[in-house]
UniProtKB/TrEMBL annotation:
Residues 5-176 form the Isochorismatase-like domain. One of its GO terms (molecular function) is hydrolase activity. InterPro entries: Isochorismatase-like_dom (IPR000868), Isochorismatase-like_hydrls (IPR050272), Isochorismatase-like_sf (IPR036380). Keywords: Hydrolase. This is Cysteine hydrolase. SUPFAM superfamilies: Isochorismatase-like hydrolases (SSF52499).
Amino acid sequence: MTKPALLVMDVQQAITERVPDPGYTPRLARAVAAARAAGVPVVYVVVGFRPGHPETRSSPMFSGLPEGAFTEGDPGAAIHPDVAPEPGESIVTKKRVSAFTGSDLDLVLRGGGIGHLVLTGLATSGVVLSTLRQAADLDYRLTVLADGCGDADPEVHRVLTEKVFPRQAEVTTVDDWIAGLS
């Protein structure tokens, strides 16, 4: 069987503040706790830049970030405390929307013998979509925890999780995924 890892993507303070669902981070915390209990590695993916944001200058999406945003020391860049990493868990910093772009995620995963990604994160139409597409092209097996993802547009979230993602991934809920771990 292909070894899984739970990816917790872009669940950073400045991003989670925009999520209207107050149950999101507690629900995701249950998935993280269950993964740890089952011996499934938890890998955190965060967006982060150098001071002055030299990596963003060519990016229409990121070039407008305020000075200091998502740099070391920015409180908004911190992983939400409900799902904070434990010592020894990998934190991968990315420079674009996909968790793979501008990061060493593929090296971390392959080095750990990971071939099955369980995707969670914010936003469904951003990091989750981009990572799913790139991971599929890299031949990873994929699961998406639909309620472990969130988007500012509930209809976009619904269409992606019900119509688009099932073409390349198993789509399930946090509770159903946890039940399958035992």
